[in-house]
Each structure stands twice: as C-alpha cells, then as structure tokens.
Amino acid sequence: MALLQISEPGMSTAPHQHRLAVGIDLGTTNSLVATVRHSIPEVLTDEDGRSLLPSIVRYLPNGHANIGYKAMAARTTDPKNTVVSVKRFMGRGLKDIAHVENLPYDFVDGGREGGHGMVQLKTVAGVKSPVEVSAQILATLRQTAEDALGDELVGAVITVPAYFDDAQRQATKDAAQLAGLNVLRLLSEPTAAAIAYGLDHGKEGVFAVYDLGGGTFDISILKLSKGVFEVLSTGGDSALGGDDFDQRLFCYITQQAGLAPLSDVDTATLMVKARQAKELLSTNEETTVEAILKSGEVVQVTITAKTFAEITQPLVAKTMNAVRKAMRDADVSVEDVDGVVLVGGATRMPHIRRAVGDFFKTIPHANIDPDKVVALGAAIQANLLAGNRAAGDDWLLLDVIPLSLGIETMGGLVEKIIPRNSTIPCARAQEFTTFKDGQTALAVHVVQGERELVSDCRSLARFELRGIPPMAAGAARIRVTYQVDADGLLSVSARETRSGVEASITVKPSYGLGDDEVARMLQDSYNSAQVDMVARALREEQVEAERILLATQSALDADTELLDEEEQGAIARLMQGVRDATARSNDTSIDADSRQNVLHDAVQALARGTEEFAARRMDKSVRKVLAGKALDQV
Ligand code: AMP
Description:
CATH topology of the largest domain: Nucleotidyltransferase, domain 5
CATH architecture of the largest domain: 2-Layer Sandwich
Number of helices: 16
CATH class of the largest domain: Alpha Beta
Number of domains: 3
Structural class: alpha+beta
Oligomer: single chain
CATH superfamily of the largest domain: ATPase, nucleotide binding domain
Bound molecules: adenosine monophosphate
Helix content: 25-40%
Strand content: 15-25%
Distance between the termini: 63 Å
Number of strands: 26
Radius of gyration: 35 Å
C-alpha cells in the first residue's frame, strides 16, 4: 500500500528551501550515491572524481577500517579482514550461507540476542556484523554526498533487490541508521530503474527489468497501476554475470594461443586482458589480445564481436530461460509487456541487447548508464520524498489515505471527515455551527488518526475562520471541506454560508510517518475502541452541560423579570448541580460510565426545570412581534 502522510505544520520547511536527499545503490560489488540538483538527477563523485565506491571494507588491527578503493588491494593480501560482497550476508544466518564456497572469513553465529541470528565475522578489529560492515560503506557514501552538497542530508532512499526478505530489508535499514542516515524509504532496485526512465509517469503497464551485473543476474517483472509499482515476479541466477563472459573469453584465448595450463599469476593477467577485450567488443567489431606471460609465452589472439557473441551464446540463453520463467510466474506474455529496462554493466554487450530486444519484440530502454540507473532512480524518489517538487514533477506513489483525516469538535472529540482507505483524489464536506451566542470566530483543528479523542490523534494544522456575523448559538452554518488532491496535498476550507466569510489552509505532505507507525496507530485504535466510546459519550455530555449552562445564563440575563425569586433560586440550584456534576465528571477515580450518568441526570434536571421559563420567554417574544400589528400584517 502506498501511503499518504502529512506533516505537522511546524515541521514543514519553506517552499523554496531545497532539502538535501540522496538515493543510494548499495550494491554487492560497488555502491553509488546520487541526488537531484536543479531538477536533474546525477551521481555524486568523491574527491578524486570517482562515482563508484567498491563495496569493500578492510578492518585494521588498530580498530579502524579502510573502505572502498583503499581496501581493494587487501582482498588478496589480507582476505580474512577484508570484507567483500557483504550484501550476501545481510539478514542471513550461518545456515543460509553454508552453500557459498570459498569464503575466507571466520564466521561467528550471531545468536538470537545480540546478533538477531545473523552471521558475524571475526576480524582483527573484533567481531563485526554485516550490518556494521554495510554501515561503514553507507557512512562513506554519506560523507561523499555531504562533501559534494555542502550540507547535511535530510534523508536517503536506499535500494534493495526485489527478492530481499524482511530480515534482509531490516538489516539494510539498521545499517543506514548506524551510518547516521535517515531512511526515507527502501526501494526495490528494479523499481528504481523504472523510475529513472520515468516509467512511473504512465498510467498502467507491465515492465521487465533485466539486470546483468558482474556476478549476478536478476530479472523482475513489474506492474504499474495508479502510480504504484508492484513486483509480479523475480528470478535470475546469483552465480551468473559479466565475469562468466570473461571466463569464456579467457578459455577461448588460451585455446587459440595453444597455451598449457597457466600459473596463478598468468591466469590473473590473462583474465584482466579478457575482461578488457570483452568491454572493447561492446563498441568495436574486433580486438586483439596481446600479452607476454611470466612463462615467457607471447599471446596474440584476435577476436571478432561475432565470435565473442557465438562463444558466449549459452550464457545469454541461460539468462533468457530465467526471463521465460519469471514471465510464467508473473502470468504475463510478451504482448503484455510495455517496456524493458536494462541495468548492470554487462548489459552494454550488444548481443545481450539484441537477445532481450528480440525476445520482448521491443527496443530496450538503455540510454541511461546501466551502472548508475538504480542510484539515479533512487535519487529521484528521495527528492520527492524530501518534499522537493519542481513544477511538472509527478508526485508520489499514492493511492489511498492510510489514516482518517478529521476535525476537532467541542470537548476535544474528533469528527472524521475523510475516512482511512479513501482513494485519492477525494473531497468531503461537513456542516458545523457555533456554540455560543454571538460567536464570531471558529477554530478549525485538522487531525489525523483513528481514535475518538484529539489527544490520541496526530495534529496536522490549525486555522481560524473569523468575521462570522454575531448570531444566536447554533444559527451559523459553517461548511468545512477537506480535499486531498492526486498529489496527496490536503486543503481544508471553512465557509460560513450565510455571510460567505471563508478561510482555508493547505497542509503539505512530508512523509513523516513510516508504515510501522501507521500500523501502530491503527492497532491503538482497535485496542482502545471500547474505552474511546465511553470517553466520547462522557465528553459529549460535558459539552452538552456547558451548552445548557451558557444558554440558561444568557436567558436569565435577558429575561430575569419573568421569574419570581423562588423560581430564580430553583434554577440557580439546578445550574449549580450541573456545575458540580461537571467538576465531578473529571474525577478519574470514579468510573467513566457513572460520571456520565450523574452528569446526564443533572443536565436533564436543568432542562426540565427551565421548560416553564422557556415557554414564558417564547410568549414574551411573540407578544413583542405582534404588538401594534393588525392580524393581516402578521
Ligand atoms: P556491475 O556489477 O553492474 O558494475 O557490472 C559489472 C560488469 O559489467 C563487469 O562484468 C564488467 O566487465 C561489465 N561491463 C562493464 N562495462 C562493459 C562494457 N562496455 N561491455 C561489456 N561489459 C561491461
């Protein structure tokens, strides 16, 4: 469910102040941070102008850590203390990772308490959880962003794979918090890519996101409806990526050069050459791999793009099989798919693009750098969530109102005007009246929540309707309208219909409430429904008591002469009875039901005791109207 959330008015910033927010692609191999500047999403670079941060953390004996490029070389020299691809361990227990081979780390079972069952890694700097390792990466990205933007961030959108479960998502959130980042939202990686291409601007559609990175392949089928992306299915292969293409090319080169089995050093040298050749073949028809090996052998092999495509065809076919399976799982056919997005550096290979295009019978979206597309999409989302909305920007992924929007009525009670789960846009109006004679202003207090009492709901805004012409209590007719537009903006207006005086306010959305907070507020309302009903009945009785006291007093002020002394005394005693019962109605040592009953009886007694007085006043005003008038003039 997409959520509409509304800020406390005091919390909203001035409309022109840009709030710094970033999108973070926390990747297995590399991570990136991006933001939207002057309406254009861009990846931020570190002080050396690099946009990628290798997701590597090396722990040092002094307790410090090297992160990113600084940690890279230590992968081979100090593998135990150099954590690579920590994303694989996020939210995972020892059992979950048992199948991953050749991991150089000393794992410790996190246990239920401290580690929440998540694996931990023993390093020279102590035992580290994957959350702490990820937090080091995130903190580095945060620093890069704050240095580049020159100020503190209000928050970040962090992407996670679509298949991440709750534990993995929670671990990602925890890491962000540890890094001092305010998580505006976790966003699935394919959805971020779709947003980067503006696919969320359409009305409806099914989209495929084909993501081939260095070591993993993911395919996601998304459905967009009413501005909300739903992941219909995911699939892929966690051990298939660009590196496998390097491997095939390496085998081809050694075969063509007639090389005997190579030493580790020569293998590493030739693997690097193979990777370079693979990348060159994305833009060149052919390339020549040249190397002089430690063994003394000279390698010179020319490969054409056509040959490269042929020898790696089985890998491409493997990805397409996963695509077919994901399509079946989503129960969609090629004809249903409205667009395809390419993500991951390895999708630069032209034969991958052709295979994907041929399968989906469409040209895939590929003009955004496939390494940056996820971070850019996250940045766009972060920018919107932070409340930076440029003219023409589409607003957020909203569909329903998560919590009721109401108004405070007398006695601190809430009258719901737009109930929760109403689809937006929507508008509702309700009529109110004045409480006191001659009342010329009405305070409108806008609240959000399910509870009966204002004190248990969230205050959103207050404003006053002034200039109501003085009238008797209950005579004014004030129409209060709540309107939530498609952008999730709530406007409230109040209009006194006889005089036409009007006042209004717009409440800016700020997305301050998390899903869990909304859930808590709903749970509270269910748990306290009974208590709230009793409290409401008591408050209503108190309001009635106050109203009848005011009305009686103003009648006495106007027409005391209609009563003799004894009658005046009787009414005064009944009024005192109501005041006493009102005072006692706040005594919480007595149960609320009995307090309400006592007050109710006192109010009824006063109502009965003033019936005769009311009749005499009526006679008097009728006589006044009729005085000196002929019957036909009445
Ligand atoms: P990623 O994990 O998304 O950064 O993707 C990394 C993979 O993309 C590696 O296997 C790279 O060799 C591959 N890659 C990067 N640039 C190119 C290119 N121009 N042509 C083919 N593969 C590339």
